[in-house]
Amino acid sequence: MCEENRRRLKQIVHVLAVLYVMTLLSGFLQDTQFNFFNYILFAFLFLVGIVLLRVTFESRATGTLRGLLFSTGISSAVLFTFFLSYEWSRQNGHSDSEALIEVFLYGTTLFFWISVIGSLLLIRRMRGLNPDCVSA
Questions:
Q1: pLDDT in tens, 22-47
Q2: Is the pLDDT of residue 133 over 70?
Q3: Integer CA distances (angstroms), 6 to 37, 83, 92, in order
Q4: What is the 3-state secondary structure (H, E, C) of the chain?
Q5: Which of 40, 82, 113, 127 has the most CB atoms lying inside 10 A of its own CB?
C-alpha cells in the first residue's frame, strides 16, 4: 500500500473517531431545541463511513487491515441507522423499543471503537513497508 493511500485512510479514520466523539457530546442536547445537531453529526458520520468504504475498496489494503477498515465504515453506517430508529422510538413514546435499540447502539459503538483502534494500529504498523510504490 502506498504512503499516500495509508495517509488518506488514516485521516479518514481519525475524522470518524472525532465525529463519533462529537456525536457523543451532542447527545446532551437531546431534549433541547438543539437536537438537530445530533442528526447533522450522525449524517456526517454516515457519509464519512461511506467514503471510508469507497477509499478502502480503491486502496491496496489487504488482509486484516482491509477487514478492519470495512468494519469501521460499516459500523458507522449502522450507527446512523440505529440512531434514527432510536430517535423515532423515543419521539413516539415506545420505551421498550427505545431500550432495545439503545442496547444495539451501545454494542455497535463498542464494535466501532474496536475497529477504529485496530485500523489505526495496523495502518501505523504498515508505515514504510512499500516506500517505492507508484500510485495510480
A1: 998 888 877 788 888 889 999 999 99
A2: no
A3: 31, 30, 44
A4: CCHHHHHHHHHHHHHHHHHHHHHHHHHHHCCCCCCHHHHHHHHHHHHHHHHHHHHHHHCCCCHHHHHHHHHHHHHHHHHHHHHHHHHHHHHCCCHHHHHHHHHHHHHHHHHHHHHHHHHHHHHHHCCCCCCCCCCC
A5: 82
